[in-house]
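Hi all, posting the design record for the shared folder.

TITLE: backbone redesign
STEP: 1 of 1
STRUCTURE INPUT:
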């Protein structure tokens, strides 16, 4: 479905956005005072993922995030977006973000935004990336409010996070978050004990079969690599898509010392997926299953497009399952 914008609504939304952008007080809400007070004009310039300069409010108050990574990053930085996109396969925001995103209205899905709903919110800043279809209507979004494309498709999640922090005027806060996360990564890695270097498989169980997720430099692959954990041969390298289906005749390719299994939803959906998997012939013969090394995960975080809070969820699950266990 495509959405059409009444001309009058667009004019009102654009006028409101320009008014909001010009009334910033220079307080970024973070520790980037120099950035937030650029020229003392209430606006500052950032460079988006396409190399385009965008003038954004120095202290944005009404932010709309049109992708999981930008919503995730904004919430990690203490911002409270007023509009957001629904999670993959979900009617609301991704389940792992829901507790922090109670104030966000759904104005898009991963395929496209609802421009009328979005304009009605009168945002002063719109954030998105190439993980969503909204990238195709960036010119229309820019007529509603300053719009920043934070990252290209498959960009490292850390770079995408840093770009979102910069757009929000919270660059220093973003770096502080990463420093804290990296310190915890190191501590968890040092506590893996006998599981150091373990072969770790990550799959999503959906429609009666598994799919590989978390390959490459996304929040899952990056976190597991940083912990020194290995991946099965079929889960190495970059992914050809968000997920890669695996034939039931090749179940052995998803085996490992540990198997992290989720679904397209929360942890309860993952439990249902595991129940379905155990009914499949040969699943019970996997080494990870025989050793009781199957960990049900919150798929809304592990299978998401990524972000700092998603990476934190991965780290927490790995720590609970593998740290100091044989």
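Okay, here is what came back for every position:
SEQUENCE:
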């Amino acid at each position: 479905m495509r959405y059409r914008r009444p001309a009058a609504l667009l004019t009102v939304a654009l006028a409101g956005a320009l008014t909001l952008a010009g009334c910033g007080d220079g307080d970024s809400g973070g520790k980037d005072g120099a950035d937030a007070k650029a020229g003392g004009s209430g606006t500052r310039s950032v460079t988006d993922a396409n190399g385009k300069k965008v003038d954004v409010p120095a202290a944005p108050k009404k932010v709309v995030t049109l992708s999981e990574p930008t919503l995730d990053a904004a919430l990690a930085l203490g911002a409270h977006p007023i509009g957001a996109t629904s999670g993959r396969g979900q009617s609301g925001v991704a389940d792992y973000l829901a507790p922090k995103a109670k104030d966000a209205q759904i104005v898009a899905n991963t395929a496209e935004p609802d421009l009328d709903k979005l304009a009605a919110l009168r945002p002063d800043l719109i954030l998105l990336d190439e993980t969503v279809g909204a990238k195709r209507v960036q010119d229309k979004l820019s007529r509603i409010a300053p719009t920043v494309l934070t990252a290209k498709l498959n960009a490292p999640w850390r770079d995408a996070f840093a770009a979102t922090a910069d757009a929000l005027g919270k660059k220093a806060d973003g770096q502080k978050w990463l420093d804290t996360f990296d310190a915890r990564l190191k501590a968890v890695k040092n506590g893996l004990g006998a599981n150091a270097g373990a072969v770790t498989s990550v799959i999503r169980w959906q429609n009666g079969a598994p799919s590989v997720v978390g390959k490459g430099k996304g929040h899952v692959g990056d976190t597991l690599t940083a912990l020194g954990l290995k991946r099965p041969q079929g889960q190495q390298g970059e992914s050809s898509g968000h997920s890669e289906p695996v034939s039931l005749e090749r179940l052995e390719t998803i085996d490992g010392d540990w198997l992290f299994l989720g679904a397209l939803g929360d942890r309860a959906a993952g439990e249902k997926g595991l129940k379905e998997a155990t009914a499949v012939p040969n699943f019970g013969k996997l080494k990870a299953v025989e050793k009781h090394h199957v960990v049900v995960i919150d798929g809304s975080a592990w299978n998401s497009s990524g972000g700092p809070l998603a990476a934190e969820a991965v780290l927490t699950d790995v720590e609970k399952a593998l740290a100091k266990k044989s």
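COMMENT: The first strand starts at residue 43 and ends at 47.
Let me know if anyone wants the other runs.
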